[in-house]
């Protein structure tokens, strides 16, 4: 099902129940965050291995279903927020990917957990340093004090 079809389905579900009256932008954003908290709760007090096991199709069916349900709740609220705010999520996601690609060029960020501000600062501080003209950013640099995510992609959300 496409994003558009899914949006239409969730709007139809909402409208059949006359719930649009409760769906202010504020309430939808709060609800999305509450659902994201429920998703996070699935990982509380779990080891990294236990959390990663949730991605394994052979994992306990109840745990997988809980993960799927919480992911779906977050997505459905996101679709409602986008509808309420008049945001084309497909266009917005594509634009954000372009922005992230500019902030995190492959040659400077591959294998690195550094935020784009750190990458840019390293370029400014030592443009002539480092291997192969990469501005001193060798991708293996782990000077950041932020915890390292399991992986970093250009699609990763950027709070700035």
Q: Tell me the fraction of residues in β-strands, as a range.
A: under 5%
Helix content estimate: 55-70%
The averaged pLDDT comes out at: 83
Question: Are there runs of 5+ residues with pLDDT below 50, and where?
Answer: 128-160
State the distance separating the first and last CA atoms: 31 Å
- Output the structural class: mainly alpha
Dominant shape: extended
Radius of gyration: 20 Å
The helix/strand order is HHHHHHH
**Count of DSSP-assigned helices:** 7
Sheet bearing the most strands, described? none
Per DSSP E runs of 2 or more residues, the count of β-strands stands at 0
Structural features, described:
It is built from seven helices and no strands. It has 160 residues and is an all-alpha fold. It has helices spanning 3-16, 25-41, 48-53, 61-85, 89-103, 106-109, 116-126. Residues 128-160 have low confidence and may be disordered. Helix 1 crosses helix 4 and helix 2 (25-41) packs antiparallel against helix 4 (61-85).
Task: Kindly summarize this structure in a few lines.
This protein has 160 residues and is mostly helical. The protein contains 7 helices and no strands.
Annotate the secondary structure layout.
Blueprint: H1 3-16, H2 25-41, H3 48-53, H4 61-85, H5 89-103, H6 106-109, H7 116-126
């Amino acid at each position: 099902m496409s994003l558009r079809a899914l949006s239409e389905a969730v709007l139809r579900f909402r409208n059949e129940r006359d719930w649009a009256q409760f769906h202010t932008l504020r309430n939808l954003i709060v609800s999305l965050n509450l659902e994201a908290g429920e998703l996070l709760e699935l990982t509380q007090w779990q080891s990294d291995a236990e959390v990663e096991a949730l991605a394994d199709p052979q994992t306990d069916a109840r745990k997988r279903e809980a993960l799927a349900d919480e992911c779906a709740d977050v997505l459905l609220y996101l679709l409602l927020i986008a509808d309420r705010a008049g945001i084309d999520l497909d266009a917005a996601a594509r634009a954000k990917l372009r922005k992230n690609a500019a902030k995190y060029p492959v040659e400077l960020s591959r294998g690195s957990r550094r935020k784009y501000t750190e990458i840019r600062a390293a370029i400014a501080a030592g443009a002539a340093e480092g291997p192969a003209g990469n501005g001193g950013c060798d991708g293996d640099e782990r000077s950041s004090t932020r915890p390292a995510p399991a992986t970093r992609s250009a699609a990763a959300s950027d709070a700035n």
